[in-house]
Amino acid sequence: MPPTPNPINKHAPQEYFPAAPALTLAQAIRADDVAAINAVFAQHPDLDPNLPGKQGVTFLFWAYAHHHVRSLRALVAHKADVNRPLLLPNAKGGTDTTHLLNIATEG
Hints:
Helices cover 39% and strands 7% of the residues. It has helices at residues 22-30, 34-43, 59-65, 69-77, 100-106; strands at residues 86-89, 95-98.
């Protein structure tokens, strides 16, 4: 089965992360601004790097959807769990469970 296109990168960060500090982090990830990512975690040490946003989108997946390897590395440095299952939106309005590695190997 061919991989389905991922439209998440076409959406605004606030659609998945509506409030600060998660929104601030999502904006930094979208800009691939590692200094801003580090600043968010410095200012909010209790911010969970594995916090799922709306529809299960995580910061790691948000970075992956934008093809931002530097942001991915920064998130992992802040203890984002690359092995955590992802609950991602599907075409039927629900969610599917997968792993970041599965997505990366698809293309």
